[in-house]
Amino acid sequence: MLTTFLTYCGVGAIAGILAGLLGIGGGLVIVPMLVYVFALNHIPPELTMHVALATSMASIMFTSVSSFMAHHKRGAVRWDVVKKIVFGILTGTFLGSCFASAMSTNFLKVFFVIFLYFVATQLLLNKKPKGERDLPGKAGMFAVGNGIGVVSSLVGIGGGTLSVPFMLWCNIKVHHAIGTSAAIGLPIAVAGTVGYIFNGWNVAGLPQYSLGYVYLPALLGIAAVSVLTAPLGVKLAHSLPVAPLKRIFSLLLYVVATKMLLGIL
Predict the structure, then answer these.
(1) pTM across the whole model
(2) N or C, which end of the chain is more exposed by having fewer CB within 10 Å?
(3) Structural domain boundaries enclosing 35
(4) What are phi and psi of 215, to 5 degrees?
(5) Angle CA(170)–CA(176)–CA(178) in degrees, nearest 5?
(6) For 48-72, how does the pLDDT look when each residue is reduced to its tens digit (9 = 90+)?
(7) How far is Cα 137 from Cα 131, in angstroms, rounded to an integer?
């Protein structure tokens, strides 16, 4: 039991650093590692992906606060953007969690694998969208927020892999895009967590100490450490060449995605 809890702490440490360093949802690491650990702990296979996504979402509530506060202190959060997109984020993420709860574990794994390959390719090529336009109006921001929220809930992330490129495309500076993405991660995590708790409330076969689909022991281990390592990631983001690190991380994602794909097949 102690070894398993320490594993959750290790997952949290990695997730916190990535959230601060790359502006990437820690769920890209949290979800596949939880799926693996849950399988070892005999959680029913038809529930492992749902529990992993829900627990990842819940952990991001803590990671995002620690991360965006560190970015805020550096003046890197565009609160005007957060205010414009937050309603779409909340509705999209909640609806996405409802949709995910109705899907099979294999469907969610396939969707997650496809998303991992997409993110890995994006990181490897390191192509940043050109600032070709301004932020859209209220309707446009609501639609964008919905899209980011739905996808984020289906893959258990804080939305950084989608919101950062969007903001770069809208002429927002890269450090501001990363910091603002961290702030957007909080409403994503809150709405997704509420959705997964609501939809998993009466599901049979969930492990002991679950709140809906959220597995509390894993959440405790991940959250306790991620809040400590997220500020470290922010500090590294302002002092290290991030592009080479993204390429290295992309290779790791290719490996993880391929391993998950082989497990499905």
Answers:
(1) 0.88
(2) C
(3) 2-264
(4) -95, 110
(5) 95
(6) 999 999 999 998 887 777 777 877 8
(7) 17
